[in-house]
Design brief:
The complex is a heterodimer of chains A (about 250) and B (about 300). Chain A is an alpha/beta fold. In chain A, about 35% of the residues lie in helices and about 25% in strands. Chain B is globular. The chains are: A alpha/beta (about 250), B mainly alpha (about 300). The interface of A and B includes residues 93 and 151 of A. The complex binds adenosine-5'-triphosphate (ATP) and magnesium ion.
């Protein structure tokens, strides 16, 4: 395979040092791939993304990005390491205007570059430009997600980590968000994404990891997983079984 | 009546300056810092010490009771109080922030306020003092209203500071980072902002404004080690009235509290004046705990 942008090895991490949530996660993301993480509620999907982002206590294993060890790199240096992260909830500042959200996202860049990147962001997302002086709390769910994307792209990342970008959006808007993600992929971005909807995840991504109880249980190309009996039984077989996957596997 | 309004404006301006720092640290560090009022006392006394050390070589400027040395002493005291605040944060609050809950921080700040007050008492003694023994002649503005030049200076400088601070919060990167940090610390870090640096600046701004409030208090009233103790309730009442994190709100809250205190003596015995901010605090918490201006534009939130 080509260059590996992110490699997570035997990662043990949690919100408190004495209470690990992740019990030895292994995964990697190659340049140009879109990789999704699926799994039931509480499986540790968000926890993994946050641990990579440097927000949690890592008590074992390590994280490498673009060939550098970033296990101990603080969150605020993530952009410099080439990684952007869009959290699952509260991913924009609702009390700031759209323009202020973007200026904050570009605050680590020198001013001319910041101004240029913000202008590029407005070109890519014209709807944001027309609302630039509105508070972000006035935006719709889909627009917020676009603002969060726009902000995350300001530091020109190679790897974009998204935590359930489709959560709480209507099916039509989800399609828009996914179309945007494909466009980002085309422009050379690598994406690691958590997605609740397993069908959608398998449909859009190159490879998928299935998490359960803080471990990655199954992984493979999305085509393989679509054929996988276990996955079919859990997610496509009996109706409404989406959140009963924890436990035996 | 007119005199009471003018006096209320004066003490309101001093309360406002202290409350701005309090509301910023409350909004950004997320705890009620009972030691903030002691920074006002510390600032006032550090300025006094500087004044003693340098000696009042130069006389007063124009109609004011103070001269260049006083202004220099104030600037030095702003730096000194900032160092004090940063040291306290480093030794006490930062450790508690990392390891324990909100209430521990609040109780910790009680402890800190006692320690600071006692140290000031030890060094400077308990008696009231003044920066200058010059007697000022009050100007009669209209019949029934006398204002001292110092008071006008205090009001003028307060307006300048509030406008400058508002501009700072709205326009600069650091101000933007402070407003972001008040809303969502984790997302602020995700945006690449070094939040520890922003927290340090928050202390520096809060401590500097507290110093100015303390020096103004000393100039227009007197210096006593209990300045902070008497200001705790007015500061909290003003900050909570204005809505936590809201700078303009804190200023308006400060003016309301100062005015209410001052006007109250027209109706109730002066001895009860100190209860007025307490009453305001209770009323706000009961009727509109998020403050008068929650959700409105301007300020840190
Ligand atoms: N802030 C927190 N503090 C302590 N424990 C937490 C915190 N957030 C999540 N957890 C715990 O960590 C475990 C994994 O949660 P996580 O948010 O990673 O799940 P998830 O796979 O993202 O689920 P979802 O699909 O609901 O988003 C859960 O048991 C949860 O209770
Ligand atoms: Mg999650």
């Amino acid at each position: 395979m080509s260059e590996v942008l992110l490699r997570v090895t035997d990662l043990v991490a949690g919100y408190r040092p004495d209470l690990p949530i992740l019990h030895g996660i292994n995964l990697h993301v190659g340049a140009g791939e879109m990789v999704t993480i699926v799994g039931p509620n509480g499986a540790g999907k968000s926890t993994l993304i946050k641990a990579v982002a440097g927000l949690l206590t890592i008590t074992g294993g390590h994280v490498e990005a673009m060939g550098h060890d970033i296990t101990k790199v603080p969150t605020e240096k993530l952009g410099e390491a080439g990684i952007a992260y869009v959290p699952q909830v509260a991913n924009v500042f609702t009390t700031l205007t759209i323009d202020e959200n973007l200026r904050l996202g570009a605050a680590a860049l020198d001013r001319p570059l910041a101004a240029r990147r913000i202008e590029e962001a407005y070109q890519r997302f014209p709807a944001l430009k027309s609302h630039r002086n509105h508070k972000a709390r006035a935006l719709s769910g889909g627009q917020r997600q676009m603002l969060a994307f726009a902000r995350s792209l300001l530091c020109a990342p190679r790897l974009l980590m998204l935590d359930e970008p489709s959560a709480g959006l209507s099916p039509l808007i989800v399609q828009e968000v996914f179309t945007e993600l494909r466009a980002l992929m085309k422009s050379g971005l690598t994406i690691l994404m958590v997605e609740q909807n397993v069908k959608a995840a398998l449909a859009i991504s190159d490879r998928t990891y299935v998490f359960a109880e803080g471990q990655n249980r199954i992984d493979g190309t999305s085509e393989e997983l679509t054929q996988n009996q276990e996955i079919r039984a859990i997610y496509f077989g009996n109706a409404g079984a989406g959140n009963s996957a924890s436990g035996d596997s | 009546m007119l005199q009471a309004i003018a006096d209320g404006f004066m003490s309101g301006a001093i309360i406002a300056l202290g409350a701005i720092g309090l509301t910023l640290t409350m909004g950004i560090l997320r705890f009620a810092n009972f030691a903030h009022a002691e920074l006002v006392t510390a600032g006032a006394y550090i300025a006094l010490a500087v004044l003693w050390l340098t000696g009042a070589f130069m006389g007063p400027i124009g109609p004011f009771s103070f001269g260049i040395p006083m202004l220099l002493a104030m600037v030095v005291a702003m730096a000194g109080t900032s160092v004090l605040a940063l040291t306290i944060d480093h030794l006490v609050f930062r450790r508690l922030r990392d390891r324990s809950g909100h209430m521990t921080l609040v109780f910790g700040s009680f402890g800190v306020s006692l320690v600071v007050r006692m140290i000031i008492l030890l060094i400077f003694g308990g008696a009231a003092t003044y920066y200058s023994n010059e007697l000022q002649i009050a100007m009669r503005v209209v019949p029934g209203l006398r204002i001292m030049p110092d008071q006008l200076f205090v009001l003028g400088l307060t307006v300048v500071i509030v406008v400058a601070l508002h501009f700072f919060l709205q326009r600069t990167r650091l101000g933007l980072s402070m407003r972001a940090l008040a809303e969502n610390p984790e997302l602020t870090r995700v945006n690449g902002v070094d939040t520890n640096r922003v927290i340090r600046w928050t202390w520096i701004i809060g401590a500097s404004l507290a110093t100015i409030a303390g020096v103004f208090y000393g100039l227009t009233i007197q210096l006593r080690p209990e300045i902070g103790f008497h200001l705790i309730l007015p500061l909290f009442a003003a900050a909570i009235l204005g809505g936590t994190g809201n700078v303009i709100g804190a200023v308006i809250g400060g003016l309301i509290v100062g005015m209410a205190e001052s006007l109250s003596v027209l109706f109730i015995p002066a001895g009860y004046k100190l209860a007025v901010p307490f009453l305001i605090l209770l009323l706000v918490l009961y009727l509109k705990p998020t403050g008068l201006f929650s959700g409105s534009a301007g300020g840190a939130k």
